[in-house]
From TrEMBL, chain A:
<comment type="function">
    <text>Subunit of the oligosaccharyl transferase (OST) complex that catalyzes the initial transfer of a defined glycan (Glc(3)Man(9)GlcNAc(2) in eukaryotes) from the lipid carrier dolichol-pyrophosphate to an asparagine residue within an Asn-X-Ser/Thr consensus motif in nascent polypeptide chains, the first step in protein N-glycosylation. N-glycosylation occurs cotranslationally and the complex associates with the Sec61 complex at the channel-forming translocon complex that mediates protein translocation across the endoplasmic reticulum (ER). All subunits are required for a maximal enzyme activity.</text>
</comment>
<keyword id="KW-0256">Endoplasmic reticulum</keyword>
<dbReference type="InterPro" id="IPR007676">
    <property type="entry name" value="Ribophorin_I"/>
</dbReference>
<dbReference type="Pfam" id="PF04597">
    <property type="entry name" value="Ribophorin_I"/>
</dbReference>
<feature type="transmembrane region" description="Helical">
    <location>
        <begin position="438"/>
        <end position="457"/>
    </location>
</feature>
<keyword id="KW-0732">Signal</keyword>
<comment type="subunit">
    <text>Component of the oligosaccharyltransferase (OST) complex.</text>
</comment>
<keyword id="KW-0812">Transmembrane</keyword>
<comment type="similarity">
    <text>Belongs to the OST1 family.</text>
</comment>
From TrEMBL, chain B:
<feature type="transmembrane region" description="Helical">
    <location>
        <begin position="369"/>
        <end position="387"/>
    </location>
</feature>
<feature type="transmembrane region" description="Helical">
    <location>
        <begin position="142"/>
        <end position="160"/>
    </location>
</feature>
<dbReference type="GO" id="GO:0004579">
    <property type="term" value="F:dolichyl-diphosphooligosaccharide-protein glycotransferase activity"/>
</dbReference>
<feature type="compositionally biased region" description="Basic and acidic residues">
    <location>
        <begin position="463"/>
        <end position="490"/>
    </location>
</feature>
<feature type="region of interest" description="Disordered">
    <location>
        <begin position="746"/>
        <end position="774"/>
    </location>
</feature>
<feature type="transmembrane region" description="Helical">
    <location>
        <begin position="270"/>
        <end position="288"/>
    </location>
</feature>
<keyword id="KW-0460">Magnesium</keyword>
<dbReference type="InterPro" id="IPR003674">
    <property type="entry name" value="Oligo_trans_STT3"/>
</dbReference>
<feature type="region of interest" description="Disordered">
    <location>
        <begin position="451"/>
        <end position="490"/>
    </location>
</feature>
Length: 614, 774
């Protein structure tokens, strides 16, 4: 139905335009060669036209009309001037093409005006090569197929070139993906060979002559269309350009109707699932690293990476083979070395990176490229080879305060021909690079300062509350106990010294030295007892020390006992030495005392530890 | 001068010890976190299993819509057509925790996704849990035991199994809350501080928010209080530790919607109230005892007891009458099956059908707590040496948790902290004894040649004391692994110290024993790392198998869910067995009929009935439920054992429990469940069988099921009411669409135009009895 309707409109256009055919008849196309490549879902028209000026005035513009049905799907149009033929063929830069609205022409055609670099004078000629790339020109017919069917698509155009100018000789070649054609319109001079259909040559065709041709053929290539692709390119001056691409993919070919049988698909994938999209290949730049492929529910394990010095190939399979009408969404991401894509010129930095998506044969209906510059970038400008809608936003990420400037570039109907580099110029001082580490350092410094302050500060709310006073008293008690412990330890050291002097005595027999040691020890002990007295009385008076006092008292008593015994032992040993008694005799006499000393010592040690615990 | 030095070095040593234990704790936290990352490294950062997907979905909703919407969330994408009030039926602790974490991170401009936060919540909280274990064990038995217990808990396999990265389940935060609540209880008990008592109630509130296991706390603490009272350990500290907890805790618990009035209505909480009354009586008795003379007191006791008994019996009788009048005796099914392990299998097949509700086997004890099982008795003995309030609590905790773990595998998780605490105590006490004897002998040996006098030992003991600080410092720096024991030597409990002094073992024995203990510890570490890496890190939605030609990944579940989410209408209803409900709603974002929250047995039985009915009857049931797709999990192609055919008997049982026309014996041949040619016709014609094995025979020509290891019984058949719309790469998930009814009518009208109208209507009325939804 739809097709029929457009047929009618074309016929209508045809009839309508013959009326206006004399409007721009100055130019004549002497030779026209048209090639239509239908081998994938992206339809590529390559037209080479030799334009001659037969009029009186020099012409600087050539008009290229397209019917509306095509114009709204026109993704890419480039016009070049070619010179020479065959191997010597050279082509110029792309010429400037603009949408124009010539007067007297009905609006159902979209006109593109090619501005020639130099005017074509009277009688002069030049050869133009027009490359036009269209999406969505192929309509699946039938619209729904089963798993076993091949995908058939219909394509419709005119056998003659739609032109406001008269065409002397023209021919049309339609290239098909496979040599299988369901049907095609037969006109005079139609030839079908291999996978090509040739129309023409036709001679002396008047302007706006449109004999419709329809080709209905087998095209089993999947029609992968990304309804939306968001590419986020984030620059980190620490050496990485991170690219994240979010795909929203649909198979726009003939829809699958009825069952999907995995059995059939696995047994004969090329017959039962011929048009299914099973894998995609992304050509990433060389030295791409940290590649990932996932969707919102996690990693997708069916992917492979092949890399060499020129490129990195990422082969991905969707989670399931995609049949017509099926959708999926996924994300791929990779890092690129900064020095390959970021350059400096005239005090500005610029990013130079491709615009389109790295996968071939994908049509992108809506491409959004976001370039995230580091925080603090300014003076930003974008240079792109084609017109793009540009907006700005900011993004907050790690350690940001003001946010990073983001340039959002939007373009609809993107095809692989748009994979050209674009540049983003901006200023960014290297010093701002250090801002974030410094911020971290300062933050941690503050944190530690705060910790130190917290530990040393007293946060008690009420200085007169009983618990606070109790705490203060407890602190005092603790210091007192500590001092007391020190004294006790010193006492014990003196005890040790006494013992040592006894051992010396047994070795050397020097009674005098031993006596001297005894004397100094006595003096020391007396002093220490004196020192401990105020502490003890304080402990006894303090209510906080109630639990400890008995232990302390016990310790004092035991210690005194120990001291007495030790002195006793000392004097006994010294006595016996003076009396020159034998070693064994001394041991016998001392043994009883010794036992007590050991016991007491043990107890004292235990008590000391107990107090220590408190 | 020497004394000055020793005292200085002692304070230095003290400070050093603090810093060191802080560092050790930090490292334990890092270890607890990182040992759980195996799943992320070996697989990917993804949510695991079933329940975590629900929690993840709830968290997503929370972060998107805010707390109030979450509170009032009525989820219409599950339990179609009933729906589910999510806000009122979930324990919100985990979700709120992760949601808050996410919010904090995002407010600090750290753009982590909700998924990432959810994946790493469990490891973070297991680090917290090991710190809480340190605090708890420190209160019970000192810092040395604390550090050991914390290290053990950080890597205990039982806990790892529930808290690997991605295992975003209630237990992940609940174990932390459990231990922390116990810590605060013990802390209150030791200090008698009302401050800690309040914190304790708040921690209990967090626990109630997080997990249904809070009933364990509210029963264990009263038990301990009762134990203290009975053993004559009543003190005002006990009162402060318990009374505020019951009052504040119950008030706070009632604030959680899912608990609500259950906090005062159900039998699980009665013990706490009973003990609450008892402790007041006891407090009163102690008070009266304090103001009365002994004789007066005796008279008062006899008076009060005789009157009190009467009142008590009256109250008790009323209570029992009240409780007995309710069908489940006021207990929820899961709690009842705890008290009577055979309860679930008798009355509630839906609880019995879950594998984690089965009693554990002996190997699972060894798998989950490993050598701790042998150390626990030693720990119990160590707890008794000086029995304090705190250590009696530890003993009670281990005894009850051992019982509960014996009832349900799942509760092994509650046992794990108790086992770690006990083993920590045992290990540190043992090391304490052994290293002290070694040091005693070593220092003694170096000293003895110098002295000829008889009092060698005494001197050396002295020297040991003075040199101890220096020695410890040296040894600490040289041997890191020993630091826990050193710590322990510094501050053991008061009384044990005296006893230990007597306990000096021979040098050789101690060296060998220390060596063996270290070996035991090493074995434990090796086992834990193995368990974390191999046994518990699989996310279960991605399966891998290692064959001779490398690693093979089975990602079929996500393949199916992704297909559903992208290629079906948003409002389509998907029917599957309840196991896959949570995953379908979370990953495929499609409405399901039943899910893992098994709140409506009838609904589940309906699905079970449909699966066990013949095609036509099943179609009717599904159609009446507005179902568009039916999802079955089938493992026969690759040998995935936990598929729907293996779960099928549960569907029959649960279905048959509500709709008696489904009879289990119809599906069994001589009491045996089989799917080969010996299977019963009912089995071979039921929907589950047909959907699982549809066109399966064409794969290898004879239909060999690799899970059941037999050829299937019915090989060639066609589906009349369903059509296959998707099957995953390894056939693990198969999705069928219900054929629309109009097609059927047209097919019939072709054959017999006149008969069609009447025959269809009569068939409809024929099935009406069996279909609960018409």
């Amino acid at each position: 139905m739809k097709r029929l309707h457009s047929d009618l409109s074309l016929l209508f256009v045809l009839g309508f335009f013959t009326l206006f055919s004399n409007v721009c008849s100055d130019l004549v196309i002497s030779k026209l060669d048209r090639q239509i490549d239908l081998s994938s879902q992206i339809v590529r028209f390559t037209t080479s036209l030799k334009v001659e000026n037969n009029g009186a005035e020099a012409v600087s513009k050539v008009l290229l009309p397209y019917p509306e049905s095509q114009a709204k799907n026109l993704a890419f149009l480039s016009v070049t001037i070619t010179e020479g033929k065959g191997k010597t063929k050279t082509s110029s830069d792309r010429l400037y093409v603009d949408v124009s609205h010539p007067e007297g022409m009905p609006p159902s055609l979209t006109w593109y005006a090619v501005s020639l670099p130099k005017e074509v004078s009277k009688g002069g000629s030049l050869t133009l090569e027009v490359k036009a790339v269209f999406t969505h020109l192929l309509t699946p017919f039938p619209e729904k197929i089963t798993q076993a069917d091949a995908q058939l698509v219909a394509f419709q155009d005119s056998a003659h070139y739609l032109s406001p100018y008269a065409v002397k000789i023209q021919s049309l070649t339609v290239k098909l993906p496979e040599p299988k054609v369901e049907s095609y319109t037969r006109l005079e001079n139609t030839k079908f060979s291999g996978s090509e259909i040739k129309y023409g040559p036709y001679e002396n065709i008047p302007p706006f002559s449109l004999p419709t041709i329809v080709v209905h053929f087998v095209s089993n290539k999947p029609f992968s269309v990304a309804q939306e692709l968001v590419r986020e390119i984030e620059i980190s001056h620490w050496g990485n350009v991170q690219v994240t691409e979010n795909y929203n993919l649909v198979h726009a070919g003939a829809e699958l109707k009825g069952e999907f049988s995995r059995l059939d698909y696995q047994a004969r994938p090329h017959v039962r699932g011929a048009s299914a999209l099973s894998s995609l290949v992304a050509r990433l730049p060389a030295r791409a690293h940290s590649i990932y492929y996932r969707d919102e529910i996690g990693n997708i394990s069916t992917s492979n990476v092949y890399s060499d010095s020129a490129k990195t190939l990422l082969e991905i399979e969707p989670r399931y083979p995609m049949f017509g009408g099926w959708r999926t969404a996924f994300t791929i991401g990779y890092g690129l070395p900064l020095q390959d894509f970021l350059f400096k010129s005239e005090g500005k930095r610029f990013l130079d990176i491709t615009f389109g998506c790295p996968m071939n044969d994908i049509v992108i209906e809506n491409l959004i490229v976001k370039v995230v510059l580091p925080e603090g970038s300014n003076d930003i400008s974008v240079v792109a080879p084609f017109s793009i809608k540009e907006t700005r936003e900011t993004k907050l990420s790690h350690l940001d305060i003001a946010g990073r400037p983001v340039i959002v570039l939007e373009k609809t109907n993107v095809v692989p021909e748009h994979n050209q580099n674009f540049q983003v110029y901006y200023r960014f001082s290297s010093f701002s690079l250090l801002r974030e580490p410094l911020m971290l350092v300062f933050g941690f410094f503050l944190f530690f300062i705060a910790c130190i302050a917290y530990v040393h500060a007293d946060f008690t709310i009420s200085k007169s509350s009983p618990s606070y006073i109790a705490k203060l008293q407890w602190d005092e008690v603790q210091t007192a106990i500590q001092q007391f412990q020190n004294i006790m330890n010193r006492v014990l050291v003196i005890h040790n010294k006494l013992e040592a002097s006894l051992r010396d005595l047994s070795r050397t027999g020097d009674v005098q030295a031993c006596k001297a040691a005894r004397k100094t020890a006595d003096a020391f002990l007396k002093e220490l007892t004196k020192e401990s007295k105020p502490l003890l009385s304080f402990l006894q008076s303090s209510p906080q020390a109630l639990q400890i006092t008995p232990k302390v008292d016990e310790l004092v008593i035991k210690e005194r006992e120990l001291q007495e015994k030790l002195m006793l032992k000392h004097s006994m040993v010294v006595d016996s030495y003076e009396k020159k008694s034998g070693g064994r005799d001394i041991d016998n006499r001392v043994a009883a005392v010794q036992q007590k000393i050991t016991l007491l010592r043990q107890e004292v040690d235990d008590l000391l530890e107990v107090i220590d615990e408190i | 001068m020497a004394t000055q030095e020793t005292s200085q070095s002692a304070t230095f040593c003290h400070a050093f010890g603090n810093v060191l234990s802080f560092a050790v704790l930090l490292l334990i936290g890092v270890m607890a976190f990182s040992i759980r990352l195996f799943s992320v490294i070996k697989y990917e950062s993804v949510i695991h299993e079933f329940d975590p997907y629900f929690n993840y979905r709830v968290t997503q909703f929370l972060t998107k819509s805010g707390v109030y919407d979450f509170w009032n969330w009525f989820d219409d994408r599950t339990w179609y057509p009933l729906g589910r009030v999510i806000g009122g039926t979930v324990y919100p602790g985990l979700t709120l925790t992760a949601g808050t974490l996410w919010r904090i991170l995002n407010s600090m401009n750290i753009p982590l996704s909700v998924e990432t936060v959810c994946v790493f919540t469990a490891p973070v909280f297991s680090a917290f849990a090991s710190w809480a274990t340190y605090l708890l064990t420190k209160e019970i038995k000192g810092a040395g035991a604390g550090l050991t217990a914390a290290a053990l808990l950080a890597m205990v396999p039982s806990y790892i199994s529930r808290s690997v990265a991605g295992s975003y389940d209630n237990e992940a935060v609940a174990i932390f809350a459990l231990i922390f609540t116990f810590y605060l209880y013990i802390k209150t008990l030791n200090t008698g501080s009302l401050f800690y008592a309040t914190l304790n109630a708040i921690a209990y509130f967090y626990m109630v928010c997080s997990w249904g296991g809070y009933t364990f706390i509210i029963n264990l603490i009263p038990m301990h209080v009762l134990l203290c009272i009975v053993t004559g350990r009543y003190s005002p500290r006990l009162y402060i530790a318990y009374a505020p907890l019951v009052v504040l805790g119950t008030l706070l618990a009632a604030l959680v919607p899912v608990v609500g009035f259950n906090a005062v209505m159900t039998s699980e909480h009665f013990a706490s109230f009973l003990v609450f009354i008892i402790i007041h009586v006891v407090a009163l008795v102690y008070y009266i005892k304090g103001i009365l003379s002994p004789q007066m007191f005796k008279v008062a006791v006899t008076l009060v007891v005789s009157v009190g008994m009467v009142v008590c019996f009256a109250v008790l009788a009323v209570l029992i009458a009240l409780v007995a009048s309710s069908p489940t005796k006021g207990w929820s099914g899961r709690s009842l099956s705890l008290l009577d392990p055979t309860y679930a299998s008798k009355y509630i097949p839906i609880i019995a059908s879950v594998s984690e509700h089965q009693p554990p086997t002996w190997p699972s004890y060894f798998m989950d707590i490993n050598v701790l099982a042998f150390l626990v008795p030693a720990g119990i003995i160590a707890c008794f040496l000086p029995l304090s309030d705190a250590s009696s609590f530890a003993v009670l905790y281990i005894v009850t948790s051992v019982y509960f773990s014996g009832v349900m595998v799942r509760l092994m998780l509650v046992l794990a902290p108790a086992a770690c605490i006990m083993s920590g105590i045992a290990l540190s006490e043992a090391f304490d004894v052994f290293t002290r004897s070694i040091k005693f002998h070593l220092v003694g040996a170096t000293q003895s040649p110098q002295d000829n006098a008889g009092d060698t030992t005494k001197v050396t003991q002295n020297d040991v004391k003075h040199e101890k600080s220096e020695v410890t410092i040296k040894e600490r720096s040289s041997r890191k692994s020993k630091k826990k024991d050193k710590e322990n030597i510094e501050r053991p409990s008061l009384v044990s110290r005296v006893e230990k002094r007597l306990l000096v073992l021979p040098l050789e024995t101690s060296v060998i024993a220390v060596f063996l203990l270290v070996l035991l510890g090493a074995f434990y570490v090796v086992h834990c790392v193995w368990a974390a890496a191999e046994a518990y890190s699989a996310p279960s939605i991605v399966l891998t198998s290692r064959s001779h030609d490398g690693l093979h990944v089975f990602d079929d579940f996500r393949e199916a869910y992704a297909w559903l989410s992208h290629n079906t209408e948003v409002d389509d209803k998907v029917a599957s067995w309840w196991d896959y409900g949570y995953q379908t709603t979370a990953m495929a974002n499609r409405t399901v009929i039943v899910d893992n929250n098994t709140w409506n047995n009838t609904h589940i039985a309906t699905v079970g009935t449909a699966m066990s009915s013949p095609e036509k009857a099943a179609w009717d049931i599904f159609n009446s439920l507005d179902v568009k797709y039916v999802l079955v999990v089938f493992g026969g192609f690759v040998g995935y054992p936990s598929d729907d055919i293996n779960k099928f008997l549960w569907m029959v049982r649960i279905g048959g429990g509500v709709f008696p026309h489904i009879k289990e014996p119809d599906y069994l041949r001589d009491g045996q469940y089989r799917i080969d040619s010996q299977a019963t016709p009912t089995m071979l014609n039921c929907l589950m069988y047909k959907l699982s094995y549809f066109r399966f025979v064409e794969t290898d020509g004879r239909g060999f099921d690799r899970v059941r290891n037999t050829e299937i019984g019915k090989k060639h058949f066609k589906l009349t009411h369903f059509e296959e719309v998707f099957t995953t790469h390894h056939w693990m998930v198969r999705i069928y669409k219900l054929k629309s009814p109009r097609n059927r009518i047209r097919g019939k009208t072709k054959k017999s135009k006149l008969k069609s109208g009447t025959s269809i209507s009569s068939k409809r009325s024929g099935t009406r009895k069996k279909n609960p939804w018409q």
